[in-house]
Write a structure and sequence with these properties.
By secondary structure, this protein is of the alpha/beta class. It contains 15 helices and 16 strands.
Length: 491
């Protein structure tokens, strides 16, 4: 067998990071009909159908597939599950404060979702987003391949990893910090919107590599959070249409980080947004790249920042390397990973049906494996001890000759009907209260508020976030402020 060209065949690495879904929730059934083995005979740690979680009454709630005939199949699990460090502990250990050295059992997902639904139902701002009929058992409902034809076809037609974990057992921004900087500087919640550690972008630039960050239809959030690129030339940032133009012209940057739409009507797949819109987004990315001038030298990586409270049956390993000497919030030592999340790899240099795993008994993949791959390809020094210890992803590139087939030639993205309206009682309560933006919309507004804009005296400063009556109002305000900040950047 001819030797693989490996990373030497890759000039462009494109990362699409979506929101808050676990591995089992999106891909657990991928190979269930073939005994959890891929067409190459490689083992796949997916669902058997016997996995379960106890409810508060001691009943075992088994995993089950989401069906197209369900009331709102693309808006599961029907509400936003518990996020963050304490909720994740509860889901993994059954308590928010596990003892040192405790072993995760992943048996607290149903009871934690029950707790979350309890307080959400009493708050009009949250209750408005709980879909009718939602119960705690919904957290054990998983998407089968036929419900996610795009993600599943990419995973089967190219490669998937069943040993890829979020970098920290917590929510969105700390994990997104890890994929940019290999650390969250000790932070474990979304309240921190500004990270000051060195990021991968200046390091790549120093090594002679180019980079770009794209939002979908609005400017990306990442530069608002990462201090060392906040004032980078605006040529580094753009929208999906700019990404498509760069691909078509063959002038795509060496490293591309792509964000979805952040609003509740967007394609990020954050629970309980429309998952079908995320499928459409992924197909759009793939179709843009496939057959383009950059296709034969591109590695596309699709992953999710964290599990967002969605069930997974694999306990996160406890062999993570602390990234630095940052004192972790809640006394956390950063020695265990977050919950397993989907990771799909797409390139004509990948054999169909590949299940990518790191070396046996070694460190699993996490978000810093993306950094390790970039560092290996462009000879960049590790940013922290975490990415220095992380296995890179180059082993997924096994072919000596680029493929010419298209595994998604006949695949169409799903469409969904609108989410059902809340019950009359919830709607009435919401109408008498200011429901405001949801969690993700508030994150976006908070982050953008920290961008320094000059006042009438020429002094740059952040702006206090206003009280927003709706999510749309928050997003409109954030987009306007971000556009104003972008105009003051160097070209």
């Amino acid at each position: 067998m001819a030797k693989s060209a490996g990373l030497s065949s890759i000039s462009n690495i494109v990362v699409v990071m979506l929101e808050n879904r676990s591995f089992d929730h999106m891909l657990g059934y991928l190979y269930s009909r073939t005994g959890n083995k891929s067409p190459l005979g490689q083992p796949f740690d997916g669902l058997t159908g016997n996995e379960s979680n106890p409810d508060g009454k001691g009943n075992k709630i088994k995993v089950s597939p989401i069906a197209a005939t369900d009331p709102h199949p693309y808006f599961m699990p029907g509400s936003d599950p518990g996020e963050g460090f304490l909720n994740t502990n509860s889901q993994l250990f059954g308590t928010t404060q596990p003892k040192p050295g405790a072993t995760a059992t992943n048996q607290g997902f149903v009871t934690n979702f029950d707790y979350t639904l309890g307080w959400q139902s009493k708050d009009p701002g949250w209750a408005k987003d709980i879909l009718p009929g939602t119960s705690a058992s919904a957290i054990m409902k998983m998407y089968p391949p036929e419900m996610l034809p795009v993600l599943s076809a990419l995973a089967r037609g190219y490669a998937v990893s069943d040993r890829y974990f979020a970098s920290a057992p917590t929510e969105t921004l700390p994990n997104r910090a890890f994929v940019q900087m290999a650390t969250s500087q000790g932070h474990l919640d979304d309240h921190t919107k500004s990270y000051t550690a060195s990021s991968i972008y200046p390091a790549l630039e120093k090594a002679g590599a180019t980079w770009s960050i794209y939002g979908y239809d609005q400017l990306p959030l990442t530069p608002a959070d990462i201090e060392d690129i906040k004032n980078a030339p605006k040529s580094h940032f753009g929208l999906f249409k700019d990404f498509a133009a760069a691909v078509k012209s063959g002038k795509l940057a060496n490293y591309v980080f792509m964000e979805p739409q952040w609003s509740s009507k967007g394609n990020s797949q954050h629970p309980n947004y429309d998952v079908a819109l995320g499928e459409q987004f992924l197909l759009q990315v793939y179709r843009t790249l496939y057959g383009s001038p950059v296709w034969k030298k591109t590695l596309l990586i699709i992953t999710y920042d964290e599990h967002g409270g969605c069930y997974d049956h694999v306990p996160p390993p406890a062999n993570a390397t602390p990234p630095d000497n940052s004192v972790g919030e809640f006394g956390f030592d950063f020695k265990r990973f977050g919950v397993r999340v989907p990771a799909v790899f797409v390139s004509p240099w990948i054999e169909a049906g590949t299940v990518l795993r790191p070396p046996a008994k070694g460190v699993p993949f996490d978000h810093t494996s993306i950094l390790a791959t970039l560092e290996k390809r462009w000879k960049v020094k590790p940013l922290t001890k975490r990415d220095a210890a992380a296995p890179d992803l180059s082993a997924v590139l096994t072919l000596a000759k680029a493929r010419t087939d298209d595994p998604l030639a006949k695949v169409k993205a799903p469409q969904s009907s609108a989410a059902p309206a809340p019950s009359a009682s919830v709607a009435a309560a919401a109408s008498t209260a200011s429901t405001g933006p949801d969690h993700l919309e508030q994150i976006y507004a908070d982050s953008v508020s920290r961008l320094p804009l000059s006042d009438e005296k020429g002094q740059a400063h952040p702006q206090e976030v206003d009280h927003f009556a709706t999510g749309k109002e928050a997003m409109d305000w954030a987009h306007k402020r971000y556009a104003a900040f972008s105009k003051r950047k160097k070209k």
